[in-house]
Amino acid sequence: PGGIAGHTQIQGKELSYNNIADADAAWECVKTLDEPACVIVKHANPCGAAVGDSLLEAYERAFATDPASAFGGIVAFNRGLDAPAAAAVSKQFVEVVIAPEFDTEARKVFAAKPNVRVLSASLARAAQTYDLKRIGGGLLVQSPDARNVQSSDLRTLTRLKPTRAQIADLLFAWRVAKYVKSNAIVFCARGRTLGIGAGQTSRIDAARVAVLKAQNAGLSLAGSVVASDAFFPFRDGVDAVAQAGAKAVIQPGGSMRDDEVITAANELGLAMVFTGVRHFRH
Question: Which one is the CATH code of 4-120: 3.65.10.10, 1.10.3380.30, 3.40.50.10490, 3.40.140.20?
Fold first, then answer.
């Protein structure tokens, strides 16, 4: 229940293989967020995510993360879509829009763009029983990455402890990072993403890409928090995010060099928390 496979298509062209795969990534990510939220996915990776007092605010904040990558993306909402948010989305080129439902006025907005694929789906949050990946001649099967870490699960390893506001942003960043392909680095502040480094072959490069994305979007990383989907193998990644302006970090821990990384965080004035579990999306 609640999976993209059970969607209803309200309008638009036939869904392609990649449309469905990207829609699944966007839908699974937005369902993990409790406040009114928007997630934008491009090529299986979130390129913007945010919560807000309204869906319009959430969309505008998510879109601002990386407007270039949002072009031709998949846009998902975790509340019924209204006309103001629909009007904002319709100003951009999008492939698919997903929400639990669309009110009459929102449907009228999208009717003016008949090629846009508009999907409704249940918000049920039941986890998939298995996570499957095809390989030559067979399938890999594992249990899904279904756990949403809570504040009570976090261990602070640095002298400086995160503030309550930072903890909220760290948990938001951690939930988004779950759906970013590894190596993943996600900068966030005040319930929105600021820079996302996805699918890099080294963690330091993921950090550099995330910083570059934020710079390209004109977003400041001063005072931000950072999620790393797996442990920092060296202190260079911590140095990079601190130099960019981050003040708190969430990561699984578990590296042979955890002590070195914690020492670096202390030297740099960062608060750092460990989750004890990793994402490592492939």
Answer: 3.40.140.20
